[in-house]
Amino acid sequence: SNAKNILILPGDGIGPEIVAQAERVLSKVAERHNLEFNLDHALVGGAAIDATGGPLPDDTLAKAKAADAVLLGAVGGTKWDGLEMAKRPEKGLLGLRANLGLFGNLRPAILYPQLASASSLKPEIVAGLDILIVRELTGGIYFGQPRGERINDQGEREGYNTYVYSESEIKRIGRVAFEAARKRDKRLCSVDKANVLEVTVLWRNIMNDLAKEYPDVELTHMYVDNAAMQLVRAPKQFDVIVTGNMFGDILSDCAAMLTGSIGMLPSASLNEAGQGMYEPIHGSAPDIAGKGVANPLATILSVAMMLRYSLAEPDAADTIERAVSRVLDQGLRTADIAGSDEQSVSTEAMGDAVVAALEKV
Ligand code: NAD
Ligand code: IPM
Ligand code: MN
């Protein structure tokens, strides 16, 4: 058959808890839309370290490369924090991104109106918020060489990393961002530190060059420190933000809170072939792991992104997003999005509600 192959990587901490709910949603939406998927599971991160000695087993990487799409929970945890860098759970995730060439990371920050009071900002500041952060994901200071720890001329230990971007790396993420802006409100803000860092002077110049090919999109530039402030001061001034790997990591956690919780933000990580990996932007949340209280909606919304971007099933993606909106209408809240006067439900109860809503929306 021509059923698409989906690889599921639950990972660590709350990863398996939230992915279990996302899988139920995927099965239900497949049933409703008459879609057929082959689901396979593999180990990554700490779970893979414990079972095989390393965070990204060959078998997992091979399955990820062969899959039409990958759904990932989260990796990491205190148990593995003492390991040397190359053996840490996070290297499993970074290795998947690098080996699959997943340079284009889309992180939409959308405020569901039902959650206006869960935002840490005043309702009038966030009402209608709809930002897309386009984060470069396979370059910059995360991957630059040389890196490591060495003894300097003073005989002291020093740690070092390299912040480097090539012209082609900047161009291809720029194109992703301009194309995305073109389909939205046609405003793109490139975030850099061009007042200090040469690598981002090049970034800014290349974004300006690309802008000539996209005359319908308005390009502006902003320094990253100001961007962090503006996101909290007046976030609706942004439509699409494009930025490098580390700035994008930081700004997307900040943007998440505007929507009520980091447990609400999904992501897509795409390569040049359109193959993708889908994951919530949050981590393994060791502080709540095993308690059954994590918010599964970011992972469920990541399934919607997977259906839209890698599986060419936009109607099924819409169905999931409508179902999420419906459960929020019904007042269901996990603890992270519940107000002090509101009851909260478990991860599983939230999953139950989304699955039930899929029948009705
Ligand atoms: P985190 O995102 O795991 O948690 C930060 C805070 O947000 C915690 O208080 C946590 O309880 C809360 N939170 C996160 N997701 C939630 C959810 N779905 N529902 C409710 N609350 C949620 O970040 P951290 O604590 O800095 O990192 C913990 C571990 O996760 C580290 O090992 C880190 O490297 C890893 N991490 C992994 C990923 C990933 O796999 N993509 C992303 C970020 C962090
Ligand atoms: C994320 C995470 C990862 C990152 C870590 C776990 C490597 O924080 O996906 O946002 O920094 O990219
Ligand atoms: Mn992050």
UniProtKB/TrEMBL annotation:
The keyword Magnesium applies. SMART domains: Iso_dh (SM01329). InterPro entries: IsoCit/isopropylmalate_DH_CS, IsoPropMal-DH-like_dom, Isopropylmalate_DH. It is found in: Cytoplasm. It holds the Pfam family Iso_dh. Keywords: Amino-acid biosynthesis, Branched-chain amino acid biosynthesis, Cytoplasm, Leucine biosynthesis, Magnesium, Manganese, Metal-binding, NAD, Oxidoreductase. GO terms for molecular function: 3-isopropylmalate dehydrogenase activity; magnesium ion binding; NAD binding. GO terms for cellular component: cytosol. It catalyses: (2R,3S)-3-isopropylmalate + NAD(+) = 4-methyl-2-oxopentanoate + CO2 + NADH. It comes from the Bacteria. Binds 1 Mg(2+) or Mn(2+) ion per subunit. The keyword Acetylation does not apply. Pathway: Amino-acid biosynthesis; L-leucine biosynthesis; L-leucine from 3-methyl-2-oxobutanoate: step 3/4. NCBIfam families: leuB. Catalyzes the oxidation of 3-carboxy-2-hydroxy-4-methylpentanoate (3-isopropylmalate) to 3-carboxy-4-methyl-2-oxopentanoate. The product decarboxylates to 4-methyl-2 oxopentanoate. This is 3-isopropylmalate dehydrogenase.
